[in-house]
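User: Can you fold this complex?
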Amino acid sequence: MQPRLAARISSTQARSRAWGHQLRVRARRPGDFAFRVLIYAFVVVVLAVVAGIAWVLLSNSWPTIQAFGLRFLTNSAFDPIHNTYGVGPALFGTFITSAIAFVLALPLGIGTAAFLTEFCPSAFRAPLAFLVDSLAVIPSIVIGLWGFLVFAPWLQQRGEPWLQQHLGFLPFFQGTPHGVGILAAGLILTAMILPIITAIAREVMATVPVSQREALLALGATRWEVIRYAVLPYSRVGIMGGAILGLGRALGETIAVTLVIGNQAASPSLSLFQTGYTLASVIINQFGEATPGLFLSAVLETGLLLLLITLITNVLARLLIARLGRVGGGLIV
Amino acid sequence: MQQQVSLVERPLTEAAVAIRDLNAWYDQAQSLFDIHLDIVPLSVTAAIGPSGSGKSTFVRCLNRMHEEVIGARVTGSVEVEGVNIYSTGINPMNVRRHIGMVFQQPNPLPTRSIYENVAIGARINGLAKGQELDELVRRCLGQAALWDEVKDRLRAPPTQLSGGQQQRLCIARALALDPRIVLMDEPCSALDPIATLQIEDLIKQLAQRYTIVIVTHNLQQAARIADRTAFFLSGRLIEENATAELFSRPKKRQTEDFITGRFG
Amino acid sequence: MRLAEQATPPASPRSNPFQEERNGLARRRRVTNQLAVVLTGAFTVLASLFLLYLIVYVAGKGLQFINLDFFTQRPKPPGETGGGWATALQGTAVLIGLAALIGVPLGMAVGIYLSEIGRGRFASLVRFLVDTLTGIPTVIFGLFAWVLIVVPSHSFSALSAGVALGIIMVPTVARATEEMLRLVPKELREASAALGATESRTVLRVVIPAARSGIVTGIMLALARVAGETAPLLLTAFGTSFFNTSLLRPIDAIPLRIFVFTLSPYAIEQQQAFAGALVLIAFVLLTSLAIRWATGGFRVRRR
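Assistant: Here's the predicted assembly.
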C-alpha cells in the first residue's frame, strides 16, 4: 500500500478512536447518566431473570433432590399416593424420541441441503428453500393438532400395522399399535427439526470454497462425488453443529410431543408403538395436580433436568458452529 | 485395468491438442474469440497476457472446466489426440479424468491425509487398490519431488505443509491419473520465490513425460520454462511461437508492446 | 498447423479415451450419481410438500368455521350453534401487548447495550447468557412464571402469561436490535457527536431511528413467534371461555383453545381447533412473508 494512503487511513482511524473515546467519555452529562443507568438496569433485570430461572428451579426442586438424589432419574413414576417421584420413563421417552428424530432428520436434512445447493435448477431453488424454511415457523400446537387428530389415527390404522407386517421381526415394530406413542412423537419431531438442520447445512455447504469443488471436478468426479469427497467433509463440523442444535430443539419440544406421545406409562419394551412420556410432557401433565411439597418439587426438578439437558446440548452445538472458521483454514502457510 | 495407451506407445507426431475456432462466453460477455492453436506434445506451452486477456478461460476450456460456471458457453473444437472433447456424447467428467489441472491456490482436501489426497483420484476412478495404490502414490509423490519430504508423514493432514509443498501435492494428485495433458493455471502466483523455482524445475522435468500448458502472468517464468509461448490479448490469440522467437523477434506490434512492458 | 497429416482411423471405442467407459465401475458411478440426485430431490420435495399439505389440510378442515361469529362470539357449549373464538382472539391480543410491554424494552436495552455501550468480558457474558435463553424450552419460562406468580397468588393470570411471553421475546428482540444498530454506519454517530449531541440523544434520536425498520421487523417476528406459544400459557394463562377483564384473572388465547379443543371429546370442537390453527398459521406465515418481502426477499445463494 502506498505510504500516503496508509498514513491517511491510520489518521482517520485515530480520529475515529478519539471520537469513540469521546462518545464514551461524554457519558458524564446528566442525560447520559440517566440513559446509561436505565440501560444497565434493564440489562441487569435480564441477567437477574436468567439467574432467577436457574435459582427458582433449583431451590424449588431441592426437596426431591434431597429426598431421592439420583434415584429420581430412575424411579418409574409420579406417585403421589406413595409419595415417590421419578422421571425414569420420561428420560427414556425424551431420549428415544429425540434420537429417532435425530437419526431421521440428519440424512433428510443433509440430502435436502445437498439438493438445494448442488443439484437444484436455479429456478426452483428459492421457492423450495422457502417452503422448507417456513416449516420452522409453524407453531408446534398446529403440528400437535394435526399429529393427534390426523397422524396418530392413521398410524394406528395404517402405518404401524404396515410396519408390523413388513418389519415385525424387529422388536421395534412389535406390540400393539396405539397410534400415539414413541414412533408418532419421533416422526413429528423429525418434521419439526428438519428445517433447522437443513438451513444450517445449506449455510455451511454454500461456504465450501469453489477451489475444493474444482479440485474434485478436475479429477473427473461426478456431481455426487464432488459432494461426497469435497463438500461434505469440509462441512461436517458445521453440519454436526446444526444437527445438535436440532437435537436440542427436539429434546425441549413440549406441546406437539405431549399431544402425540400418549402420556401413559408402558411396561418397558423395545416397541416403538408403545406410549410413553417425556420430561416436557410430564411437566404439562402433572403441574395441575401438583400439591405443595414433594409433588411440586418433583415437577420442578423435572424442569431443572430439562433445562440442564437442553442447555448442554445448545452450548455444545454453538461451540461446534463457532469452530466453523477453523475447518480447512490454514491451508496456505 | 484401464484401456489407457501407455506413454511409449503414444504417437509423437500428432499435436497433443488442436484447438480450432474456440469461442467462449460468460453469459453474454464473450471472453474468447476464434482461438486457433496447436499444442506440441511433451513440451511446456505458456499462455501469457495481461489480466482479463482470457488466458485462464482458454486453459479451462481445454478440460471443460469453463462450463461449470453458470451461464458459461463454449463453441468450437478442442481435439486431444484426434478426439474432439466437445463432441456430443462425450461426458465432461471423462475429459477431466484424462486432463489434469493444477490451480492457482493450492487446494488439497484438508480433511484427508497426504496419502489420501494423492490417492483420491485413483480411488474414485478405480485405477488401483491396496499395494498398487501405495506404489502409485509413492511414484507420483516422487515425480512431484515431494516424496522425501512427506514419506514419514503420509497420514498427516496436508495443512501441515508449506504452500509450495501443498502445490506439489496437488501436482502429484493430478499425476496420479496419468493424464495426457497437465494444465496449470498460474500455479506459482501464491507461492514465495523459492517455492516458485522448485515448481518451475519440477515442471521442466515433468515435460519429459507430460504435455504441459501453463498460464502465467510472469514473463520471466515463461522465458525460463516454456518451450512455446502463446500471447493472449482481449480474448484473442495474438501470436504463438517458440519462446525464444516470441520474446526476441515478436511478429506483432501488440506482442512487442506487452513484452517490453508498455502495458499490462 | 498439424505436424503430420495422418489418416485418422474411425474412432473405435477403445481408441477414444474420452468415450464413456463400459466397465462396472463406471456404470456404478453413473447410477450412484443419478440415485443421489433423485434421492435428495425426493427428500426436498417431501420436506416442502409437507408444509403445503399441512396448510391445505388445516385450511380444508377449518375454513368452514371462519365467519363473523368466529371473530365476535364467545365459545358456546357443544350442541349450541354459533359461538366463536372471540375470547381467544382477545386473549392473544392482550397477551401480545403484555409481552411486548415487557419484552421490547428489555430486549432493546440489551441490544443497545451490546451494540453501543458494552465492551469486554461483561458484554461477552451478557451476550452468552442472552443467547442461552434462546435454547431454553419455552415450557421452562412457563414454569418460572408459574412458581413466581401463579402459585403464590393462587390464581392463573394474564399477567403471569405476559411475563413469561415477554421474557421469551427478549433474546430475539435483543439480537435484532443489536444487529440493526451495528449496521448503522459509524459516521452517523460521529456526526451526531460532532454536533454536540450527548450519547443518549445520539442513540435515541439518531441511531435507533436509522435502524428503526429492522428493529420493528425483529419485534414483529418475535411477537408472531410468541403468539403461537402454547406450553407457557398452559401453566400461566390457563384459558377460559369468558372475556378477560382483569390481568390478574385467567385469560384465553388461540393456542390454548386449540389445545383444549384438540383433546375435546366433541368432534365439533375438534373441527373448530382447525379453524383456530388456520388463523394462527395465517398470522405467522403472513408476518414471516411480510418480513421477507420487506427485507429484500430471499437470501441469494452461491451456485
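The two ends of chain A are 22 Å apart (CA to CA). Chain A touches chain B at residues 122, 209, 211-212, 214-222, 225, 229-230, 233-234, 236, 327-328, 330-333 (CB under 8 Å).
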